[in-house]
Specification:
Elements lengths: L4 E5 L3 H12 L6 E5 L2 H10 L4 E5 L1 E2 L2 E2 H11 L4 E6 L4 H10 L3 E4 L4 H12 L12 H4 L1 H15 L3 E5 L5 E6 L7 H25 L1
Parallel strand pairs: 1-2, 1-3, 3-6, 6-7
Antiparallel strand pairs: 4-5, 8-9
């Protein structure tokens, strides 16, 4: 089976190098290509078929959304992650409506980025992996329960976490998948605070 191909596009060379080096830390076998402009990205697309496009939103002469549409005209199955230096709601809505699987603001939250890449490419999860093999035995039952719970409370997503903050099971996806790691970190911080308060109450009692 061929290695997944990723095309990184940004007019800032240091961003390209940083993204490339970050992807290398995953340990998966990936074919990573770099392009400093939309024109060069489109040239690469004529030479290779890509599984994932990671592009800056604002490129010289073209937006990341326009580039994504042109890449998909040649490679309809490609998934896209867009990165922006602008915290602009209108731009984010445009990226989402165009079909980007995730959007990140600069500076890029690297753990979130890597987790989205692993999920997009169907790779073994190393950033937010399952807790252990014991969970697999009850996976279907737990998944069904979480799906029912999600429907009952009308939530975007429901997570089952270990006491270490690892995702054991999920149902649904967040409206903005780039928020997942930050949200889980906040939940675990609240959990840890609750444990500390509980210990203090017991000590005083």
């Amino acid at each position: 089976m061929p290695s997944p191909r990723i095309l990184l596009v940004d007019d800032q060379r240091d961003i390209l190098r940083m993204l490339h080096a970050t992807l290398d830390t995953l340990g998966h076998k990936l074919d990573i290509f770099e392009a400093p402009s939309g024109e060069e990205a489109l040239l690469e697309v004529t030479r290779h078929r890509f599984d994932l496009l990671v592009s800056d939103y604002k490129l010289p002469g073209i937006t990341g959304v326009e580039l994504m549409k042109k890449v998909r005209a040649k490679n309809p199955d490609v998934k896209a992650i867009l990165i922006s230096a602008m915290n602009d709601r209108k731009a984010r809505d445009e990226m989402r409506e165009a079909g980007a699987i995730a959007m990140f603001d600069k500076p890029i939250p690297l753990a979130d980025f890597l987790d989205v890449v692993e999920r997009a490419l169907g790779l073994k999860r190393t950033i937010l992996p399952p807790e252990d093999e014991k969970v697999q035995a009850n996976r279907e039952t737990i998944s069904d329960l979480l799906t029912k719970l999600r429907k009952q409370v009308k939530a975007q997503a429901v997570y089952l976490l270990s006491d270490r903050g690892r995702v054991l099971e999920r149902a649904g996806d967040l409206y903005d998948s780039s928020m997942e790691v930050s949200l889980l970190s906040a939940i675990m911080a609240i959990f840890a605070s609750g444990q500390r308060v509980s210990r203090l109450v017991h000590q005083e009692g």
